[in-house]
């Protein structure tokens, strides 16, 4: 298959593509790729007056982590005990960063406790109900990915990314949200996978207890740029509750060339389409296209 300039790895809340395609995976893959290509094109048109003609195939793995619709009150996912544990860790890490309150002991894995309810109330008061729903949805899929009881799901998701990289050989890989975690692990475990520019968008990779300490192969102390990546750039909206702590990617990983903190969208700072249309991403892609191939 012919090499492509761009490729993507999606984040959370993308199982709907497969549901809308009546379970036909190739159709779901084609549709999400069309959406990503369109959003990137709109970003180029907004910033330069000319849309990008570069197609963007996307590694689709949402079906690998789907465990049925588990919806609770308010339209939020019904969390497993492991997911509840991750949510408690998430909020506690945010609280520690904010220094808004004395640390609250993490809840043990089990049913939702009063301690976790109290932590969720604090998070809602600080960031709003919309942010809590987003973090809950993110935690639900992170739990499916990291759950030690189902290691094959994690392996299948990483293999989807590796397969796209082997087949399309993209020069630029755009990895959003949970997709940045899947892409990072896939790239680290196989040094033969080469990408000239990796751009992580709205990434939770720097969350120490929730993500960083769970990466495989294990990251000890400080993370590193994957061996097959020439240049790594991160972009995070300063209001994105998933991309925390602020500036954490360059603090916890060496080899990050640029770590942009920007104001991308006021209401929906984590949505893929907003990141893919933002000026910072357009600038990075244009800079790459002007610079030509890069040596590892």
Describe this structure in words.
- This is Serine peptidase.
- InterPro entries: AB_hydrolase_fold.
- The chain is α/β, with parallel strands linked by helices.
- The chain folds into 2 domains: 204 residues, Rossmann fold (3-Layer(aba) Sandwich); 74 residues, no CATH class.
- Helix content is 46%, strand content 13%.
- Strands 2-1-3-4-6-8 form a 6-stranded parallel beta sheet, with helices on both faces. It has a two-stranded parallel sheet with strand order 5-7.
- Strand 3, helix 8 and strand 4 form a beta-alpha-beta unit.
- The radius of gyration is 18 Å and the shape is globular.
- The protein starts with 5 loop residues before the first strand and ends in a 5-residue tail after the last helix.
Write the topology of this structure.
Blueprint: E1 6-9, H1 16-20, H2 25-48, E2 58-59, H3 62-65, H4 81-98, H5 114-127, H6 129-146, H7 151-168, E3 172-176, H8 178-189, E4 195-201, E5 223-224, E6 229-237, H9 248-252, E7 253-254, E8 256-262, H10 272-276, H11 279-291
Parallel strand pairs: 1-2, 1-3, 3-4, 4-6, 5-7, 6-8
Helix pairs in contact: 4-5, 4-6, 5-6, 7-8
